[in-house]
């Protein structure tokens, strides 16, 4: 299948740092829990089938299911039945889908990466079970595996940040660097980053919804490209902050 995604800490955070976002009838009562339920923070982001069978993306406002063998879904979280501190439990979505999942680790190229074992239940019947890997962990793993021997002098955090962001985000990165050099506080930098990610996530969700309604592979691929850029920017941003101290 074509891979899309979203969203990390994304897609919502990004997501992972930050999060994203119909004809309505007469107002109907909405349970408070359905409007305020949030997934565990350690689930936020994109979880990918290593065999290329799709992904599940957890955002702060929406959850996207695009795994081969399960109905495509863009839904809000109706109930979080995972107790704080627990690594397993159930998430109930607004479209009637239930996700039974547990967190763990899986070995890839001799290195442990985060993973979830998830069972998708729709209409009360199990649809599939799949092990999905954290896409943020996979990206970091790829950088470790292909890393070339370090050549002195090492790049500064600013240089590394500019080198790591996608070309489409270079202007945003330069604006953040200029603001930091001018003495902008960390909170202001974080707010600017969050706003840039929010705009990206809104565009991604709009493309996903359009692809689902129009069944357009091209639109799905564009959403996947934007999602990958948003994830890459989020990882580069966090590395930059850590390098600046």
Secondary structure layout:
Elements: H1 32-36, E1 45-48, E2 54-58, E3 63-67, E4 73-75, E5 77-80, E6 88-93, E7 97-108, E8 111-122, E9 125-134, H2 135-145, H3 157-164, H4 170-181, H5 186-214, H6 217-244
Antiparallel strand pairs: 1-2, 1-9, 2-3, 3-4, 5-6, 6-7, 7-8, 8-9
Helix pairs in contact: 3-6, 4-5, 5-6
Overall, the morphology is: globular
Secondary structure category: alpha+beta
CA-CA gap between termini: 41 Å
Strand order, largest beta sheet: 4-3-2-1-9-8-7-6-5
Report the order of strands and helices.
HEEEEEEEEEHHHHH
Structure description:
- This protein is α+β, with helices and mostly antiparallel strands and 245 residues long.
- The chain is built from six helices and nine strands.
- It has helices spanning 32-36, 135-145, 157-164, 170-181, 186-214, 217-244, and strands at residues 45-48, 54-58, 63-67, 73-75, 77-80, 88-93, 97-108, 111-122, 125-134.
- Mean pLDDT is 81; it is low at 1-26 and 28-35.
Short description:
With 245 residues, the chain is of the alpha+beta class.
Features:
single chain; 245 residues; alpha+beta; 9-stranded antiparallel sheet; 9 strands; globular
């Amino acid at each position: 299948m074509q891979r899309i995604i979203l969203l990390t800490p994304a897609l919502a955070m990004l997501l992972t740092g930050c999060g994203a976002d119909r004809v309505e009838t007469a107002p109907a009562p909405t349970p408070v829990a359905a409007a305020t339920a949030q997934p565990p923070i350690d689930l936020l982001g994109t979880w990918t089938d290593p065999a290329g069978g799709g992904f599940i993306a957890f955002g702060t406002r929406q959850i996207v299911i695009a795994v081969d063998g399960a109905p495509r879904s863009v839904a809000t979280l109706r109930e979080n039945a995972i107790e704080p501190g627990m690594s397993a439990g159930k998430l109930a979505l607004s479209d009637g889908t239930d996700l039974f999942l547990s967190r763990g680790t899986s070995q890839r190229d001799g290195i442990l990466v985060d993973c979830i074992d998830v069972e998708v239940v729709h209409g009360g019947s199990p649809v599939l079970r799949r092990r999905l890997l954290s896409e943020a962990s996979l990206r970091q793993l790829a950088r470790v595996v292909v890393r070339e021997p370090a050549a002195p002098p090492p790049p500064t955090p600013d240089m590394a940040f500019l080198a790591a962001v996608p070309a489409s985000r270079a202007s945003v990165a330069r604006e953040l660097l200029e603001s930091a050099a001018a003495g902008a506080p960390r909170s202001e930098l974080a707010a600017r980053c969050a706003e840039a990610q929010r705009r990206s996530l809104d565009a991604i969700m709009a493309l996903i919804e359009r692809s689902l309604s129009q069944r357009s592979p091209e639109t799905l691929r564009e959403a996947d490209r934007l999602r990958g850029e948003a994830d890459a920017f989020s990882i580069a941003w966090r590395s930059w902050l850590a390098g600046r101290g």
